[in-house]
Amino acid sequence: MAYTEEELKKELENKEYEYGFYTDIDSDTFPVGLNEEVVRRISQKKNEPDWMTQWRLKAFEAWKNMEEPDWANVQYKKPDYQAISYYSAPKKKDQYKSLDEVDPELLKTFEKLGISLDEQKSLTGVAVDIVMDSVSVATTFKKTLAEKGIIFCSISEAIQEHSELVRKYLGTIIPIKDNYFAALNSAVFSDGSFCYIPKGVRCPMELSTYFRINQAGTGQFERTLVIADESSYVSYLEGCTAPSRDENQLHAAVVELIALDNAEIKYSTVQNWFPGDKNGKGGVYNFVTKRGICHNNSKISWTQVETGSAVTWKYPSCILKGNHSIGEFYSIALTNNHQQADTGTKMIHIGENTKSTIISKGISAGQSQNSYRGLVQVHPKATNARNFSQCDSLLMGNHCGAHTFPYIEVKNKTAQIEHEATTSKIGEDQIFYCNQRGIDSEKAIALVVNGFSKEVLNKLPMEFAVEAQKLLEISLEGSVG
Amino acid sequence: MLTIENLHAKVEGKQILNGIDLDVKAGEVHAIMGPNGSGKSTLSSVIAGHQDYEVIQGTMLMEGQELSDLSPEERAHKGIFLSFQYPIEIPGVSVTNFIKTAINASRKAKGLEDMPANIMLKKIREKSALLEIDSRFLSRSLNEGFSGGEKKRNEIFQMAMLEPKLSILDETDSGLDIDALKVVANGVNKLRSKDNAVIVITHYQRLLEYIVPDFVHVLWEGKIVKSGTKDLAIELEEKGYDWIKEMA
């Protein structure tokens, strides 16, 4: 399928006109602070139905009584949740007659994110839903998707237009009280993506979302809900970039996936939030809850490339409820300078003959700390559950750390659990060998790292794999010592 | 091409090379022989620029430029190639990807664009045929799980791809059976031209039956103690190294 630029423009214009900037120009950003009133105002801004407002308020009530978790192997100054603004939307100047009239700054941002129209054109087959400072500004390819009955829109829109679906599934996989950050997100989420694939439909293109934190001092709380109905398939890509900021910014997203019988969801993330500077100043706190449920014969596959953020706290998980369901987790987590990552997965085997695979590749450089934390849980009724876990760590230099915290809880004797782990260091002999072939040390390290990460990179869709490979390279720049 | 004068070098505080003189011209093949620990591999590491080796005295000029001023990769860009005695493994990086990266790094250093994929592919086919390399081999991780013979063949394949001016083959014959040795030697011979030169470092004369040198040098205690033609290699094979040691 190929979209003409004209069609694309039209889509963008329509989208902006229809849904884009409905906010009051003067109150684009809320003052800092969080209380019941703020939660109500967010809901009101988005013109949400009462059930949604009540849901948020319930979450806020729960959050107030919860404690920020401190079991992860990360150290940071806890954010002052009253010093954050919980809502910000891009400013609107005028209505656009054509794309030429769109704020060039906004277009420039898109270009920087690598989603210029030209690129979009060449990347046919990728539909993009852009979340920029909380409000979804543009959705493309919607028409094609609509023909197949696929719904791909912002969560705000879904709450309006597909209320019954949202209401049925929102918070069912990650309850509002699940954890501190999930509760916060449930109370204040400003936008995010929603996706529904109808029964028997194979989504013909990769669905893609770019997130970006733009305004200083604003937190970003996206909410994503993906529902793959029976026998459907969808591949979903999520990319994140954030420009340099001195203050730490909070990012607490929630992603829920529902794979009904015989369905398959592939969810890929490339996360490149601002990691802070060389001295560990600034950077994004990335506290994310991602979880999916697999019904009978269904499959959820998480692939993540995490190179950004000052602190990462993230465990994309699978609840293998249905018989013969499959959960997969493929992860590359790279930390450099003073970054800290505590990431991994939970595979909860409930159904019979459930299978899970975990491949985790941690790369630590500089003074960073990189932890894998994973739980494989086999419930009493999960006969013949199987898990294979592989956790590899690659270290660069003598000042970084790699840690592995695998938890295994088995309550059924028929389970087969395998766990493999390796730790290696980039050797001087490897670097010299590359040097001798004319490859400089920086490139040599990139080569070794890409080789190390290959198993996971191969799981990413093609264009994302190339991007991720570049990202690994960029993230390690200057780490040669 | 390469002129080494009075070269002294040390590694980990220990002096290994004690005044090497060597003059290699384009079109020539030099063999450097000597017993274990005489400094053969040290010489190759010093020429290639391994950071653990320190030049204390003397000069190494490659086409008039002092090599000590250049990083290992700059030396490679100038056309120096070292076939490693123990090639290094890089898991997850295919032979093809590695050689592509190496070729393009050298081209970039010369201000050239990346080699177009079709030309690269043609070249890979041609050179792998020369060394009787199976195409499946090219997609394997670099040196990972390779047999001794495969590793050495892969080194010569890289040499063929990079087309260096000066190739140093460090104990390329070690770990090779006779068939593999012939293939490797045959490959090296086909790559010889009036514009490039080869230094063959070996313990045994066996390899020199197939790669016939113009000059043979005997290294002992970090110095070249005797130089001659290929007949010297044969003499060494017959008499061993003891008479050289006595002579020195």
Short description:
The complex is a heterodimer of chains A (481) and B (248). Chain A has 481 residues and is α/β, with parallel strands linked by helices. Chain A has twelve helices and 21 strands.
Polypeptide structure, described:
The complex is a heterodimer of chains A (481) and B (248). Chain A has twelve helices and 21 strands. In chain A, 26% of the residues lie in helices and 33% in strands. Chain A has a domain at 1-314. Chain A has helices spanning 5-20, 36-45, 50-64, 104-112, 117-122, 142-147, 155-161, 163-169, 180-188, 428-436, 441-457, 462-475, and strands at residues 126-132, 135-139, 151-154, 193-197, 206-212, 223-228, 233-241, 248-251, 254-259, 264-272, 283-294, 299-306, 311-314, 317-320, 326-335, 340-349, 355-364, 369-378, 386-395, 401-410, 416-425. Chain A is globular, with a radius of gyration of 22 Å. Chain B has helices spanning 40-48, 72-77, 95-109, 117-130, 135-138, 148-162, 178-191, 230-239, 242-247, and strands at residues 2-11, 14-24, 29-33, 53-62, 65-66, 80-83, 90-94, 141-142, 166-170, 197-202, 215-220, 223-228. Chain B is globular. Chain B is of the alpha/beta class and 248 residues long. Chain A binds chain B through residues 427-430, 432-441, 443, 447-448, 450-455, and chain B through 48-51, 71-73, 75-77, 81-82, 84, 87-93, 97-98, 101-103, 105-106, 109, 141-142, 158, 162.
